[in-house]
Amino acid sequence: MTEQPILVTGATGKSGSRVVGRLRARGLPVRAAARGGEHVFDWNDSGTWDAALEGVRAVYVVQVDGTRLVRPFVERAVAHGVRRIVLASGRGIDDPDYARDSGGVRDALLDSEAAVRESGAEWTISRPGWFAQNFSEGFFADAVRAGELRLPAGDGAASWGDAEDIAAVVVAALTEDGHAGRTYELSGPRAVSSAEAVATISRVTGRDIRYVPLSVADYTAELVGQGWPPADAEAFADVIAPLRENRDAHVSDGVHRALGRPPRTFAEFAEATAAAGGWPA
Q1: What is the set of domains in the chain, with CATH numbers?
Q2: pLDDT per position as a tens digit, 17-39
Q3: Burial, 275: exposed, middle or buried (Cβ in 10 Å; 0-12, 13-18, 19+)?
Q4: Across the chain, what does the average pLDDT equal?
Q5: Half-sphere exposure of 157 (CA within 13 A, CB side)
Q6: Residue 205: count of CB within 10 angstroms of its CB
Q7: Looking at the whole model, is its pTM more than 0.85?
């Protein structure tokens, strides 16, 4: 079994790339799969699935938001002899009021979770909230680079989770016993507002970065002014709503349950990113 590879879908993403790195650091065989990765894998082309699954013992499933492709993929994985599945899901999907979900993301995630639970394989579900890395390599990186984060987030806070912690939990579930049948809600150790997050980044980078709270109307108007279609601008404003409404401020114990240690703080994430030269210049 130790010679069989572990398949990582979404291998170029925030969590997937870190999972690949951690597995390889342990000397374990990894099949890094993505549309533009080492092993070509496209969720929307089921013809790429069999080659990715051939001979695999465990799979990290990172799905495409709003699609219902996990269920047929999991069925095929089990037919190929996959014995362990770790699913990337989302924090808050148990709460139908967590976010305005015009794209059907929540229903698709719930179906994906049901699919792995019903698969007959060992399963573990990772439910991360907002990634701290959104400031360094995600949604907000361009704003950090520009020195001004403009969001309709008010003074709301989130318990930002470090993608390194999320990857560590996934690797543990893929390679160790004791995680089967568990759902890990993942977060940082305390809630941090957008203003506090930006102040922390300013301190560790030595740059002047401001947070500017906007109304939803002003924010969507700015996005449309930048060339966004109005429907897309409104949908992205909906994504920010849980921040404004403090729906992701609660702290979850998944990192401690899975790893036996506390999650990294936002300040520790920011300092480690600065030490690695990872902040947008």
Answers
A1: 6-128 (3.40.50.720), 131-161+188-250+265-281 (3.90.25.10)
A2: 999 999 999 999 999 999 986 88
A3: exposed
A4: 94
A5: 14
A6: 16
A7: yes
